[in-house]
Amino acid sequence: MSPATHFERLALPHQEAAYNLAYWLLRSRSDAEDAVQEAYLRAFRAFGSFRGEDVRPWLFAIVRNTAYRMLNTRQRAANVISLDTALSGDGEEDGFPFEPASDSPSAEDTLIGAAERDLVRAALAELPTAFREVVVLREIEGLGYREIAEITGTVVGTVMSRLSRGRQLLHQSLARKIGKDRTHAL
Fold first, then answer.
1. What is the mean pLDDT of the chain?
2. pLDDT, tens digit (0-9, with 9 covering 90-100), for 10-36
3. Is 1-86 a CATH 1.10.1740.10 domain?
4. How far apart are CA 57 and CA 184, in angstroms?
């Protein structure tokens, strides 16, 4: 089997999850797409050094590093905004493109589910990046502590403490948001 075929067989099944991670880190569909494309190119170029272990943490580490590189570039360029962009208010459409498939729910269930998803997404987006990434990797992508530690370049204890703190902050944010919704409903 050729290296390209082997890479495709191992890496492509994780493309959606890689996109989701990039999206949560970058908060932009187009930036996430760019990050995943660049990360997959970097991964392919470095595939010869891949040790044959689990490809998912290796690939996610590349996606994470690529996303952070893009964030750093974006922060450096934040002071340079074109007048056309500032005047047009051109913004990125918010959204999470990969929704889990479900059996045809009722319209009411769909509305309630969408409202709950929006609350969780908004609360998750408010988390500091270090906490958001471990919550996304654990709760959305289902990775284990060791895999997350490998991806983030930290130790398992740090992953556990960030996950605990991230969950706590997420819970507090959701409680505030739900409290506001109930107050507005009265």
1. 82
2. 999 999 999 999 999 998 999 999 999
3. yes
4. 43
